[in-house]
Fold this sequence. Notes:
Layout: E1 11-20, E2 23-33, E3 38-42, H1 49-57, E4 64-69, E5 72-73, H2 79-84, E6 87-90, H3 102-108, H4 129-145, H5 161-173, E7 179-183, H6 191-204, E8 210-214, H7 218-224, E9 227-232, E10 235-240, H8 242-247, H9 249-256
Parallel strand pairs: 3-8, 3-9, 6-7, 7-8
Antiparallel strand pairs: 1-2, 1-4, 4-5, 9-10
Helix pairs in contact: 3-4, 3-5, 4-5, 5-6
Amino acid sequence: MTALSPNLAALRVEQVSLSFGGLQVLHDISLVMRPGEITGLIGPNGAGKTSFFNCLTGIYSPQRGRIQLGDKRLENVPPPGRAALGFSRSFQHVALCPELTIIENVMIGLHRQSTAGWLDAFLPLSFGKAERARNREQAMSALARLGIAHVANESPSQLPPGVLRLAEIARAIAGSPTVLLLDEPAAGLNSVETHDLAMALKKLRSPDLVLVVVEHDMDLIMDVCDTLHVLNVGRLLASGGPDEIRVNPEVVKVYLGDDDE
Ligand SMILES: Nc1ncnc2c1ncn2[C@@H]1O[C@H](COP(=O)(O)OP(=O)(O)OP(=O)(O)O)[C@@H](O)[C@H]1O
Ligand SMILES: [Mg+2]
């Protein structure tokens, strides 16, 4: 486990509860996600994992509890403000624009930081030219970090799912986030692609980044994560290192299956 630098901000969630009408989706969740680690969030379908991410990014507003990045309270910070603080995410379903090349898709991830509007990133206007060149360079470097610089000018329709997932992650890291939330990055990938993804995730681990991965692929999550939190029907069932979680009887029972019984 990487030592926690005192300068960098942990993402803390305290007693967060979320409901929609009569349906309580998250019950009193408290946990800490630290920079320098890869944090895994696991749990069965409908456990509340994506809802939890939506609370972190401000898409959902929990009725109770607090969320804070370092000393900064986030309850009243709307999603664009959280993006400006360095929150970035990928989605459960591949969300690349099929009309754009891979590098153009990654450049979209940079438009929030642009002084020119995002359209200027694509239109041949002299106003946005220097910025466009800078964004292209940053996007290229994100693709290179994930080992897929060679597909920069290809269309998403020509590429396999594993490469598309890496491209989505490249888009999410292009703006150098401080918090990166990945929602089921291995969904739909074969074992070779999942192995490449694991290598890529391990390379992203950095003292400057809070990296949280929601995933159903247990081999992947046990391999890459330093700390795991297990959700079950909206409640935090267990937290700990992979070796602890793997043998936690509650977790084995509700999540990993208890076929031996
Ligand atoms: N906007 C919403 N309105 C009403 N109910 C919602 C909303 N978003 C999520 N839910 C409900 O919250 C519960 C948790 O859903 P969520 O998508 O967070 O689970 P999950 O752990 O991500 O599941 P999966 O592994 O299938 O992606 C589900 O019962 C879902 O129907
Ligand atoms: Mg989900």
